[in-house]
Every structure is written in C-alpha cells, then in structure tokens.
C-alpha cells in the first residue's frame, strides 16, 4: 500500500455524501467483489493518510462509489492521478456499441470466442442510463428487423446443428437441479463453441439461422446462471449478446423473455427504476407472444413494481399474468424454454414479491399493512416447491422459495416456522450452488441473530451459520 502523507479529500467527500464510514466502504467492497477483498480497517488509511491501495482496489473503490452516488467517479480523480483503470475490471457494456446488424452481432460474438477460458476480465454490472443504453436501439425500433426470418426451414440434415439443438434442454436441467454457479463455466463453453461455429462461417443461411437461435437460447441461459451466481456484470453481458442474437432471427418472444430477465435482475440488485423500465419494455415487446411468455414477462414486471413499492401496479400485473396462464390454450405452440412456467410458479413469484413489499412496509413503520402482505406472501409460497425431496430436479427453485418463505415467517414473527423452513432450505446448500439464494439465507441469519432468546432460534441458528460458513462463506454481491 503506497503512502501519500496527506488525507484523501475526494474519498472523504464521497464517503460524507453517502453517510458512510470507511468500514462501510470496506464492507461494500467485500459484498460486491467477495469476502476478503479488503480489510475493514484499510479504507481508514486511504481516507486519513492518503494511502494508495494495491491494484485493482483503486478501480474497485471508484466503481462502488460511482454506483452508489449515481455518477461516475473517475479512478484518477479519486486517487489524485496516482492510479488508473484496471484492465481486469471492465464495465458490462464495454465494446457492445455495434450496429444492430448480423455483422455487429458477429463482432460481439468474436470477443466471446477470443476470450475463451483465458479471459481474466471481471465485468462490472451497470445501471441507469448505461444499462438502458445497451438495449435502447432495440426498444426504440432503430435496430430494425433482424436478417433472418423466424423459423427458417432447414434445407437437409445437419448433424452438428441437430446435436446443438438437442443439447439445449439438458443444459437447462443442470441449472434447475444444481444452481447457476455450479455449471456456468460449462454452459459458457457451450456458448462460445456455438459462437465459434458462427464466426468460422461458410454455412447455408438456414444453418446460420439455427446456430444464431441456439446462441440466443444458450446466452439467455448463461445470463440467468451468471445472475444466479451473483456475477451480475457477466450476466448483463450474456443477456445483451443473447438479445442481439434473438433479434437477428426475429424471435420476438425470446427477446421479450430476455428483457424480462434483465428487469428481474435489476429488481433483485435493488435498482427498481431500471427494473420497471425494462419490465415495461418487455411487456410491450411481448404483445404478440404466446400467453405463457406474456404471463412470464408480467410476473417479472410485477416483481419490479414490488421492489418499487407500487403495490397497486404489482396487483394489476400479477392479476393479468394469472388470467393469461389460466386461459392458456394447450393447442397453441409455445417456446420450449417456457417449460418451467406453471400456475404455481406464478403464485410463488408473486409470493416473494409480497414478502419483499411486506418487509419494506415494516421498515417504513407500517406494521399492519406489512403483516398483511407478509401473510399473503407466505401463504402463496407455502404452495410451492420449498419442501420437495432432495432428489427432485427443482432443487434451486426449492432453495430460493424456501429462503423467501423463511424470511416471510421471520418478519411476521413466526419464528418456529421460519426455523423449520429455513432448515429445509439450508439443507440444500451442499447440492445447490446458488449465491442468489444463499444471500437470502444470510439475510435470514441476520434476522434471527436479533431473536436469539427464542428457543427455536437458539437451536437452529448455529446450524444455519455453520452451513453458510461451509457452503456459502460470503454473502454474494447484491448490487
């Protein structure tokens, strides 16, 4: 750690504006970049003695402060010209500003292919205008139509493409059973492999169309798995690339689905304005999609409204999604990747939206309304997958919904139920690698630490903390 000999007034000003102590900055850095990134005492030396931390901490600190303050804090400004940007830390939108043509898509795919397994870049999540900019040309129509007609008919057999397409459902099963973090490198390699086929060229148009569609589907899955792994910048980059690919084959339902995923990710990261903007764009993009796709998009939008505290809009979006799925016509073709959407899945998505709003109402001092929302949310989640057997293929969903259900019971004061459900969820930590779900269990542990006089809490809390320490040792990045 280099010494400067005088206080860092720029850093001090940023911390004062946020109302943060140096320890708060250290804790934020550890949440975003992983436990052990920085000692909690180190930022005191940065602020008070002008010490310069080792690379890439100067860029990490500038990123975190920029995100929290809502404006760019250049690395050189924060450290008075003694540090620069780190080549290992790259914004998620880096080099994505290509035209919305097949050539632009191929240029982005080439970056994925060339990076391969030796890519050491850490993609930093973006928000606000930067996030909306990576999809703006699609949203405002200036991207035009994609090059390939939807559903082009293959001209003759192509064993390689057949194999790629047949492999897709099995990739999705990996995510369902084991969580996003366990198999993300493998799915990412499949994404790059298809990208390499496109990059090499020389295929008939019908084959190119099928490869691009497969790239879009794998990219959406990889984005979802990176989101579940709390690698939010990487997830945004996958989603942005997948949207480009889906656009080129004019797969409007998949485009709407990807926008809905971006909305859900933004809401989960605590950026409700981004979530609502993306969710409403997804709803518009899904107008001509099958009912199941529209229902899924509306369920994502409902959660965005929940995080924004817009309970009436939440109820309307939830109700519209429920109507669509109830009127589902089994005779109408639906995208294969909508296999997961059921009536119960929609109910459970609404359930954790209700728990989210209920806990927010409690923090705001509205206990009566908060308890009503929590009761509704826990009732919905009780009907879900939280208690399926360990051999069931829906382990990630079970852990995620179980964690939300336990949080709902805890906030409602039902500590026996919170511990009972929390134990079921925590018992899945050894088979499910889902930092997104583990973050909820870390929050449950924090809730229960304030209630240790309760006998159920005294019995369960050490078990929960031990499981988290063994299988999910750090709270994943939430922003």
Describe the oligomeric state of these chains in a short phrase: single chain
Q: Quote the distance from N terminus to C terminus.
A: 27 Å
Note poorly predicted spans: 475-479
| Total tally of structural domains | 3
Shape: globular
Radius of gyration, taken over Cα atoms and rounded to an integer in Å = 23 Å
Along the chain, the helix and strand elements come as: HHHHHEHEHHHHHHHHHHHHHHHH
The number of helices is 22
What would you call the structural class? mainly alpha
Report the count of strand segments. 2
Q: In which range does the helix fraction lie?
A: 55-70%
Beta-strand proportion: under 5%
Please give the largest β-sheet: 2 strands, parallel
Give, in spatial order, the strands making up the sheet with the most strands: 1-2
Give the key terms.
479 residues; single chain; 2 strands; mainly alpha; globular; disordered C terminus; two-stranded parallel sheet
What's the short story on this structure?
With 479 residues, the protein is mostly helical. It is 66% helix and 1% strand.
Describe the structure.
- Helices cover 66% and strands 1% of the residues.
- It has three domains: 9-86; 102-250, no CATH class; 348-471.
- The protein is mainly α.
- The protein has helices spanning 9-18, 22-33, 42-49, 57-69, 75-78, 102-115, 129-133, 136-139, 159-178, 180-200, 205-228, 232-248, 252-268, 272-285, 291-307, 311-326, 343-363, 367-382, 395-412, 415-426, 435-449, 455-471; strands at 89-91, 122-124.
- Helix 6 links the parallel strand 1 and strand 2 (122-124).
- The protein has a two-stranded parallel sheet.
- Mean pLDDT is 91; it is low at 475-479.
- It is globular.
- It has 22 helices and two strands.
């Amino acid at each position: 750690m280099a010494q400067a000999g005088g206080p860092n007034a720029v850093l001090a000003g940023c911390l004062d504006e946020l109302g943060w102590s140096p320890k708060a900055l250290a804790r934020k850095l550890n949440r975003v970049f992983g436990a052990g990134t920085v000692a909690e005492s180190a930022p005191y030396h940065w602020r008070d003695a002008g010490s310069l931390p080792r690379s890439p901490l100067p860029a990490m600190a500038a990123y975190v402060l920029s995100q929290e303050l809502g404006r760019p804090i250049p690395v050189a400004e924060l450290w008075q010209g003694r540090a620069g940007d780190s080549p290992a830390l790259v914004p998620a939108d880096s080099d994505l500003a290509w035209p919305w043509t097949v050539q632009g898509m191929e240029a982005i795919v080439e970056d994925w292919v060339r990076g391969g397994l030796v890519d050491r870049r850490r993609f930093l999540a973006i928000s606000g205008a930067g996030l909306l900019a990576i999809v703006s040309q699609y949203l405002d129509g200036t991207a035009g139509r994609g090059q390939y007609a939807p559903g082009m008919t293959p001209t003759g057999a192509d064993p390689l493409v057949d194999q790629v397409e047949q492999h897709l459902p099995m990739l999705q099963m990996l995510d369902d059973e084991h969580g996003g973090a366990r198999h993300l490198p493998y799915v990412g390699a499949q994404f790059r492999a298809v990208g390499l086929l496109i990059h090499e060229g020389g295929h008939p148009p019908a084959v190119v169309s099928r490869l691009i569609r497969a790239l879009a589907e794998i990219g959406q899955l990889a984005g979802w798995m990176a989101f579940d792994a709390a690698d939010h910048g990487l997830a945004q980059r996958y989603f942005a690339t997948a949207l480009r690919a889906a656009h080129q084959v004019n797969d409007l339902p998949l485009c709407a689905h990807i926008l809905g995923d971006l909305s859900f990710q933004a809401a989960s990261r605590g950026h409700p304005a981004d979530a609502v903007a993306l969710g409403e764009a997804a709803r518009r993009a899904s107008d001509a999609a099958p009912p199941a796709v529209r229902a899924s998009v509306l369920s994502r939008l409902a959660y965005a409204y929940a995080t924004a505290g817009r309970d009436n809009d939440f109820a309307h979006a939830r109700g519209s999604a429920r109507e669509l799925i109830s009127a589902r016509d089994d005779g109408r073709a639906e995208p294969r990747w909508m296999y997961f959407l059921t009536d119960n899945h929609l109910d459970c998505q609404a359930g954790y939206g209700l728990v989210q709003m209920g806990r927010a109402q409690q923090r705001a001092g509205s206990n009566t309304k908060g308890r009503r929302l929590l009761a509704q949310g826990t009732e919905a989640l009780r009907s879900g997958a939280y208690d399926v057997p360990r051999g069931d293929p829906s382990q990630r969903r079970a852990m995620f919904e179980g964690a939300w259900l336990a949080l709902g019971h805890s906030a409602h004061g039902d500590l026996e139920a919170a511990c009972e459900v929390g134990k079921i969820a925590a018992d899945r930590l050894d088979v499910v690698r889902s930092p997104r779900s583990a973050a909820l269990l870390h929050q449950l542990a924090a809730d229960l630490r304030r209630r240790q006089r309760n006998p159920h809490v005294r019995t369960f809390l050490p078990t929960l903390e031990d499981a988290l320490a063994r299988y999910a040792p750090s709270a994943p990045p939430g922003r």
